[in-house]
């Protein structure tokens, strides 16, 4: 892709306007208080940017993968915690879209599309982080029902989401092929939540444990066939790692935009610090790295939309590259603001804290490199 199509440029402008007016003004308070960004959720809902990926047939906006990335990027540019609203709605619902029955989609997608409900994704556990296959949560058949027990950890938007995709072992002897995916509702008997994690960043997005205490689910809540859950979970991440890349690009762009204004205002040694070549080199590198990550992210979004054979490589590459870039760029933004950058009176320290999670969640960047290396060794090559 050499230029964004006009309709995508229009989406970027529309999201940017909503964010400038209604998301950015609350970002510092949301970070300081650690309270879920209700005002941002309302604004995103009003503009249909809260779950843009939901297809039109289920009442959604039907945004393609690139448009969804643009929404997430623009929200993250001003408030990373708020960008997890469209981001995690896609993560939670994608297993349904990829592998769910038509009845499940009809039941659970319209409330997400309308903004009535959010949808989270439960893969990780206290003892199963990078090694997802070692999960212990169990789902046992009981007549037509399934009974789920276990603990899920690091669940984004837990407690505020009404619906959860939950991965659990249905056949302990079958490894990855013994894992299945289910839709669990917040109101199902036996579902409860841990205390909010006390995190470094994305403080407005609640991260909690989800406890499943003999939760009885009707048989039709399974997503796909028994034993296909791990594959669905990994396919989901292939797509949504691209959205994390978009989030990272947005956070970095927000930090650069702020730093660019600052270095032209701030005067030392009788002139604006932007006039010093050492700082010019820094901002040039920041802009260059952001643009490289953005192009890789959009190339990956194209592969997500087409479900291209090299999506697994591109999703991992975009996520790892963009999140490493975001950490470097936000750290440099703090450096450009000097002592002021290190205080909570300026937004760049928040952006630096928020950037850190993009190197960790949806698979650490070390896991992304395992994924990429396996794809390369298997001969999966990029073809434009
Ligand atoms: N698409 C389809 N199938 C896939 C796949 C993919 N992308 N990746 C793996 N599989 C299949 C494999 O083909 C294999 O199937 P067979 O047995 O039929 O060959 C099966 O799944 C097992 O795969 P592996 O042998 O590769 O499994 P592994 O144990 O070596 O693990 C891993 C691979 C890449 C490390 C994987 O466990 C992984 O991605 N871990 C990180 C998990 C992660 O991203 N967690 C974040 C959770 S989401 C989150 O962050 C929460 C939030 O709210 C934001």
Please provide a written account of the structure.
The chain is α+β, with helices and mostly antiparallel strands. Helices cover 54% and strands 14% of the residues. A four-stranded mixed β-sheet has the order 1-4-5-8. A four-stranded antiparallel β-sheet has the order 2-3-7-6, with no helix packed on it. The protein has a two-stranded antiparallel ribbon with strand order 9-10. The mean pLDDT is 97. The structure holds acetoacetyl-coenzyme A (CAA). Residues 88, 121, 123-124, 130, 132-133, 154-156, 176, 230-231, 234-235, 237-238, 312, 361-363, 367, 370-371 line the site of acetoacetyl-coenzyme A.
Tell the overall outline.
globular
Structural class: alpha+beta
What is the average of the pLDDT values? 97
Give the number of helices: 10
Strand percentage:
5-15%
Q: Give the termini distance in whole angstroms.
A: 9 Å
Radius of gyration: 21 Å
Looking at the chains present, what oligomeric state does this protein adopt? single chain
Number of strands: 10
Q: What can be said about the biggest beta sheet?
A: 4 strands, mixed
Main sheet: which strands, in order across? 1-4-5-8
Helical residues, percent: 40-55%
Can you write the helix and strand succession as a string?
Answer: HHHHHEEEEEEEEHEEHHHH
Molecules bound to protein:
acetoacetyl-coenzyme A
Low-pLDDT segments, ≥5 res? none
């Amino acid at each position: 892709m050499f230029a964004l199509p006009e309709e995508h440029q229009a989406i970027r402008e529309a999201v940017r306007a909503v964010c400038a007016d209604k998301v950015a003004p609350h970002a510092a308070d949301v970070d300081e208080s650690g309270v879920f960004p209700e005002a941002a959720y309302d604004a995103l809902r009003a503009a249909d940017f809260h779950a843009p990926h939901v297809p039109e047939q289920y009442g959604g906006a039907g945004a393609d993968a690139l448009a969804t990335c643009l929404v997430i990027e623009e929200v993250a540019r001003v408030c990373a915690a708020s960008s997890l609203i469209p981001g995690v709605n896609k993560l939670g619902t994608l297993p349904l879209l990829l592998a769910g029955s038509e009845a499940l989609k009809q039941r659970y997608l319209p409330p997400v599309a309308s903004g009535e409900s959010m949808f989270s994704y439960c893969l990780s556990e206290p003892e199963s982080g990078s090694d997802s296959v070692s999960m212990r949560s169990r789902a046992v058949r009981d007549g037509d029902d399934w009974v789920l027990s276990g603990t899920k950890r690091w669940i984004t938007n837990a407690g505020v989401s009404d619906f959860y995709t939950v991965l659990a072992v249905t056949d302990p002897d079958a490894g990855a092929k013994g894992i299945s995916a289910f839709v669990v509702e917040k109101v199902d008997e036996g579902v409860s939540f841990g205390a909010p994690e006390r995190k470094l960043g994305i403080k407005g997005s609640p991260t909690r444990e989800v406890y499943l205490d003999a939760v009885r689910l009707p048989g039709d809540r399974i997503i796909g066939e028994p034993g296909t859950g791990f594959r669905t979970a990994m396919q989901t991440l292939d797509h949504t790692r691209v959205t994390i890349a978009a989030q990272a690009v947005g956070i970095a762009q927000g930090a650069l935009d702020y730093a660019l204004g600052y270095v032209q205002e701030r005067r030392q040694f009788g002139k604006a610090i932007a006039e010093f070549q050492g700082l010019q080199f820094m901002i040039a590198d920041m802009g260059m790295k952001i643009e490289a990550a953005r192009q890789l992210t959009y190339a990956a979004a194209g592969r997500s939309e087409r479900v291209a054979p090299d999506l697994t490589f591109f999703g991992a590459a975009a996520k790892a590259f963009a999140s490493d870039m975001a950490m470097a760029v936000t750290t440099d933004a703090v450096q450009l603001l000097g002592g002021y950058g290190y205080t909570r009176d300026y937004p760049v320290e928040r952006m630096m804290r928020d950037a850190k999670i993009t190197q960790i969640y949806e698979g650490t960047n070390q896991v992304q490199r395992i994924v990429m290396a396996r794809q390369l060794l298997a001969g999966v090559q990029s073809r434009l």
